[in-house]
Amino acid sequence: MLDKESLAKRVEALDKRQAEMIRAKETKLEQIATPFFQDGSIYSVTYLMRTRPIVFTIGSAGSGFTVFLASNPEGYIELAQKAGLRLDSSEMRLAYLTTFLETTRSFAHRFQILKSVNEIQPRPNLSEPDTHRFRELLDKYRSVIRPPQISDRIPWECVVFALRRQNLVRIELKLTADGRIQANEMILEENVPIPYTL
After folding, report:
1. Which residues, other chains included, contact 88 with Cβ-Cβ below 8 Å and sequence gap of 6+?
2. Three-class SS of residue 42?
3. Using the 8-state DSSP alphabet, how is residue 85 labeled?
4. Other C-beta atoms within 10 Å of 55: how many?
5. pLDDT at position 2 over 90
């Protein structure tokens, strides 16, 4: 794992301001598990401001490649090609896809991968109509929402259910043997009565 200073030096050529954020005393640095990379890593950086945290993700491969991943799916694919990608099991392929979703998202709003409808929590103090709608939504999707699963044939296909902003979404992913990912997202329910922030 790279320490804060080593990562900051890599980032400096891309963005000096974000390199300063990484170096800050109050910044938290976390390495995200990437068992599907032979020579690559991904880091989550949380810079604590007085009003709110700033979160961003960075990928590195070999001795010199560094890329910002937030809102940059193409950067994730480029990282994978330089990091020595291993997709030799269903577990590796699934981890590769879910890490793609979690690290290339926008960190300005909610994104939560769901394994069960029970992970959807209502907003406090809901009105009676919103409470009724929330219960109906849980009943409607109780047998639909499931943990991400991946098919056995190339191109591998995977369906992920998630909360993005205030919406319940279904994401269809296709993965090729060289690590390229095609994503198609569909909104299932808009303005779900859930908390506005996680």
Report:
1. none
2. strand
3. B
4. 14
5. no
Rounded distance between C-alpha atoms, residue 172 and residue 187, angstroms: 12
pTM: predicted TM-score of the whole model, two decimal places: 0.94
Strand order in the sheet with 53-61: 28-32, 40-48, 53-61, 65-68
Beta-bridge mates of residue 68: 58
Give the HSE-up count for residue 86: Cα atoms under 13 Å, Cβ half-sphere: 11
Note the pLDDT tens digit of each residue in 35-88.
999 999 999 999 998 888 999 999 999 888 999 999 999 999 999 999 999 999
CB proximity list for 55: less than 8 A, separation 6 or greater:
44, 45, 46, 47, 70, 107
pLDDT grade for 196, boundaries at 50, 70 and 90: confident
138 contact partners, CB below 8 Å, separation of at least 6: 117, 120
Report CA 157 to chain centroid distance, whole Å: 18
Q: Which amino acid is at 7?
A: L
Band of pLDDT at residue 16, cut at 50, 70 and 90: very high
